[in-house]
Amino acid sequence: MEVVGSRDCFICTGLMRKVPKMAESAVRKASHYQFRTFAVGVSLPEGIQDREDELRSDLRLRGNETIKTQTSRLVAARIASELDRRVDRLKPDLTLLIGLGTGEIAVSSRPVFLYGRYTKPPGITQRRELCPECRGKGCRKCRRSGFVRAPSVEEVLRKKLSSFMGSDVMTFTWLGSEDRSSIVFPPGRPFIAEVKCPVKRVSPHAFAAICGGRRVVVSGCRMLKSKPTNLPSFRFKTKIFATAASKVHDKDMARLRETFRRREVRFDRPYDRPASKMVYSVDATVRGRVLAIRAELDGGLPVKRFVSGELVSPSVSEVLKTEVRCRRFDICRVTETRRFEIG
Predict the structure, then answer these.
(1) Is residue 170 within 8 Å of residue 109, measured between CB atoms?
(2) Residue at a domain's end among 47, 81, 109
(3) 3-class DSSP state for residue 19?
(4) Residues 333/251, Cβ–Cβ less than 8 Å
(5) Do 244 and 329 sit in the same domain of this protein?
(6) What burial letters (b/e) apply to 102-134, b meaning 16+ CB within 10 Å?
(7) Is residue 302 domain-shared with residue 261, that is, in the same domain?
């Protein structure tokens, strides 16, 4: 693949002269990223592969070394030597794609999966809310963002993790949800953030941020080895503030505690089959028609529907034999009952 006299190579037409500069450029691009392992790929201009195959066929040449493999090997050797990194073709932290014809180098960084927990005061939603005018497409009202300009845990995480890891492209998986009015107490609700194409692959163990004049705290952050194939199951303790349609008596409270002592509850789900979850305990105090209910429930059981009885049985309303409406519920503690399954 080298120049013979003043004529360019029949196969690469002189493109291989560019490889040393490409390798230098690849080192510069890779040095901006934090990584331990990497891989190099090469894309060829049209015609090179055909000419190489033609020459190999005519001369009956054998062997695995081609223009693609040679270019990849030379660039990888330069990166490994100058940055002291290791080649891993199966699961690299960083992948560089060399355009042999264009001279362009595309860099992609393998996603990072971060586990953590958050606490929040009332007045902050868990997720960003779609703009009601454009439903996420972007309009003048939402300043082309597609989302309502309101404080959310997701927005806090997005901004903070972006500043730490150099990427604002991320998706979140939450272990359960709560209302805007809910307080989430320590140790907090677990979440997983998938940060795509990160520049840095580390995150602080804990951080805090002011959101809408209120403080959101994130703690227990750690990197997962890969994307979880199954999320852990969990149970949670909640304090529910509710109002009954008629006066509730102490004997009703006793019946409520007795009914929901490790009791299975069935509920309907939209577009899915009915599900069953466990209620481990319920305790409540009452003043006239105002109830304060402490309960421990399986994750996935809708709290408000468990109180009101909407497509849920048994429910608080059903046991007390009066309509009960949940005004607010707080998350006191979330406990994982099964480990992550990592792919």
Answers:
(1) no
(2) 109
(3) helix
(4) no
(5) yes
(6) eeebebebbbbbbbbbbbbbeebbbebeebeeb
(7) yes
C-alpha to C-alpha distances, 324 to 108, 185, 321, 330, 342, nearest whole angstrom: 53, 25, 9, 17, 41
Q: Report whether 115 contacts 192 (CB < 8 A).
A: yes
**How many Å from the N-terminal Cα to the C-terminal Cα in the chain?**
42
AA letter at 121:
P
Please provide residue 130's backbone torsions phi and psi, each rounded to the nearest 5 degrees: -65, 145
Q: What is the pTM of this model?
A: 0.85
pLDDT value at 269 more than 80: yes
Note whether 273 and 254 are same-domain residues: yes
Q: Is residue 198 part of a domain?
A: yes
Q: Alpha carbon 236 to chain centroid distance?
A: 21
Same-domain status, 103 and 132: no
Is the pLDDT at 235 greater than 80? The verdict is yes
DSSP string, 250-289: HHHHHHHHHHTSSEEEEEEETTEEEEEEEEEEEEEEEETT
Q: Which domain holds residue 163?
A: 112-224
Report the C-alpha dihedral over residues 244, 248, 252, 254, rounded to 10 degrees: 100
- In this prediction, residue 261 has a pLDDT band, given cuts at 50, 70 and 90, of very high
Distances (CA, A) of 280 to 171, 188, 283: 32, 20, 11
Alpha helix locations (H) across 31-66?
48-59
Q: Beta 184-195 vs 112-120: how paired, if at all?
A: antiparallel
Q: How many residues does the chain have?
A: 343
The whole-angstrom separation of Cα 272 and Cα 270 is 5
Please check whether residue 341 lies inside any domain of the structure.
Answer: no
Q: How many CA atoms lie within 13 A of 123 on its CB side?
A: 8
**Percent of the chain whose predicted confidence (pLDDT) is above 70:** 88
- Give residues with Cβ within 8 angstroms of 45, minimum separation 6: 15, 100, 101
Q: How far apart are CA 111 and CA 113, in angstroms?
A: 7
